[in-house]
Amino acid sequence: MDNSLELALSTQSLRTPPSAVSYESEIALADKAKDSAGIQHSGARLSARERTIVLLMGHGLSNKTIARQLCIAPETVKSHAKSIFYKLTVQTRAQAVYRAATLGII
Questions:
Q1: How far is CA 88 from CA 52, 59, 67, 94, in A?
Q2: Which of 16, 19, 48, 55 is most buried when burial is the number of CB atoms within 10 A of its CB?
Q3: What's the pLDDT tens digit per position in 36-66?
Q4: Residue-range domain boundaries for the chain
Q5: First-to-last CA distance in the chain?
């Protein structure tokens, strides 16, 4: 497993995930740091919501649980997941999380 993914997962408790607001804040801070460092995402562009969803996937949450955290419908999460899979050229949730981590997206 990629060190950055291990670090991301180790810094948050998997038993009691923080609120969606804190995930979105975490992503905003990471984006700001990456922008200032000039890091490119290797062509894969995920929206802030997609980055939040792939991060929650990395915490092992189901679509239904992600939907509850973000106050959206499970079908919306499924739609975002399909978009994430397409953009990252992957077929599974685990591949999406790994690829996003290796590209520095999350």
A1: 15, 18, 21, 12
A2: 55
A3: 444 444 567 899 999 999 999 999 999 999 9
A4: 3-10+19-102
A5: 14
How many residues in the chain? Answer: 106
Neighbouring CB atoms inside 10 A of 66's CB total 26
DSSP 89: T
DSSP readout, 5-58? HHHHHHTS-SSSPPPHHHHHHHHHHHHHHHHHHT---TT----HHHHHHHHHHH
Who contacts 71 (Cβ-Cβ below 8 Å, separation ≥6)?
20
Query: Is domain 3-10+19-102 annotated with CATH 1.10.10.10?
Result: yes
For 93, the enclosing helix (H) or strand (E) is helix 93-102
Calpha distance 24→30 (Å, rounded)? 10
**Residues contacting residue 91 through CB under 8 Å, at least 6 positions apart:** 85
How is residue 22 written in tokens?
A: 């804190």
